[in-house]
Design goal:
Structural class: alpha/beta
Distance between the termini: 57 Å
Number of strands: 9
CATH topology of the largest domain: Rossmann fold
Number of helices: 15
CATH superfamily of the largest domain: P-loop containing nucleotide triphosphate hydrolases
Number of domains: 3
Strand order of the largest sheet: 2-3-6-1-7
Low-confidence stretches: 1-9, 270-282
Largest sheet: 5 strands, parallel
Order of helices and strands: HEHEHHEHEEEHHEHEHHEHHHHH
Shape: globular
Strand content: 5-15%
CATH architecture of the largest domain: 3-Layer(aba) Sandwich
Length: about 350
């Protein structure tokens, strides 16, 4: 409906979905854009660093739209190889490839009458980009190994943690697909650009993790708050969330103190004398591992750097697998790699026998 002269524009800047926290000017603009675009059927491109909340905005757009009663289907395009992602998105027929023992519908069909959220769209290959362009233009595709055309009514919301115009310039991303996706762009600010929201986020996450862990950590030392606000947050809101969870679990009383925060947030250096290696933070990490007896080092040790990196990578993969109950696909997605890469890493580190 056209706005009549003198009629105020839609200026509702309240959070459009539970879990979206913040009242900074940058976030108020995001909320307004989310509400504005939700009522339409336009494709939306969410841009922002990892951990800024792109999936929450995608869910808000879906739930506030006329499609809100339909399915919301998320696909992490960076977690799967090309062949697996093609099958995941478009489905396949029996015999299309080894292991295809039955017909299977893809995520686009599952999202019919609803919304599909394509996270890390920048990870897709040129072949898949051609198929995605056709779906956006024609609303149709064929399952892998089939000739029958499937038509769908699905809204597409895509997200990228990279500048897609740069990817277009490098010929890593199709220009025509970029413009099809970029009908309405919404840029999510990094946490360092909205530091005033950190106290609100702290209160929100404290409530969540107190309840989840049956704790009563309700106070935060002033020095701790100042350090949290001052920190640059490369992992954004997701990193802050993890820090709060850790503090709630580790707090001996009802208060988060400065000492409970990681050294990087406190602004402390963990090492003053470098070990043989490559310097910087890796020297500090190497020293920590040596002090814990996890890595041995001699004065003339030339391969300490490589052994430290391998040890850290092995421990990270083992812990992530354990957290994901051994489900490799889920672990790969959380690590930001595809499953084939994870399998190679498991073999390299001797973890492919079910360990971790």
């Amino acid at each position: 409906m056209l706005r009549q002269p003198g009629q105020p524009a839609d200026t509702d800047t309240s959070p459009p979905l539970a879990g979206l926290i913040g009242s900074s000017p940058a976030m108020l603009e995001v909320y307004a854009m989310t509400r504005r675009v939700a009522a339409t059927n336009a494709s939306v491109l969410l841009l922002g660093e990892t951990g800024t909340g792109k999936e929450l905005i995608a869910k808000a757009i879906h739930e506030l739209s006329p499609r809100g009663s339909g399915p919301f289907v998320r696909v992490n395009c960076g977690a799967l190889s090309e062949s697996l992602l093609e099958s995941e998105l478009f489905g396949h027929v029996r015999g299309a490839f080894t292991g295809a023992v039955a017909n299977r519908a893809g995520r686009f069909e599952a999202a019919h009458t609803g919304t599909i959220f394509l996270d890390e769209i920048n990870s897709t290959t040129p072949k898949l980009q051609v198929k995605l362009l056709r779906v956006l233009q024609e609303r149709e595709f064929e399952r892998v190994g089939d000739t029958e055309t499937v038509r769908v009514d699905t809204r597409v919301i895509a997200a990228s943690n990279r500048d897609l115009l740069d990817e277009v310039a490098k010929e890593h991303f199709r220009e025509d697909l970029y413009y099809r996706l970029n009908v309405v762009p919404i840029v999510l600010p990094p946490l360092r650009a909205r530091r005033d929201d950190i106290p609100l986020l702290l209160s929100h996450f404290l409530e969540i993790y107190n309840e989840a862990n049956d704790r009563y950590v309700v106070h935060i030392e002033k020095a701790a708050v100042e350090a949290l606000v001052r920190y640059h947050w490369p992992g954004n809101v997701r990193e802050l969330q993890n820090v709060v969870e850790r503090c709630v679990v580790m707090a001996p009383g009802d208060e988060i103190t400065l000492g409970l925060l990681p050294p990087t947030i406190r602004g402390e250096k963990t090492s003053s004398a470098p070990l043989p290696g490559r310097g910087g933070d890796l020297d500090s990490l190497a020293r920590d591992l040596v002090e814990q007896g996890l890595v041995t080092a001699a004065p003339d040790d030339d391969d300490l750097f490589d052994r430290v990196v391998n040890r850290v990578e092995r421990e990270l993969i083992a812990q992530m697998l354990a957290a994901c109950n051994g489900v490799q696909l889920k672990a790969a997605a959380r690590l930001g790699i595809n499953r084939n890469t994870l399998r190679k890493k498991l073999q390299e580190h001797g973890l492919d026998d079910g360990e971790g």
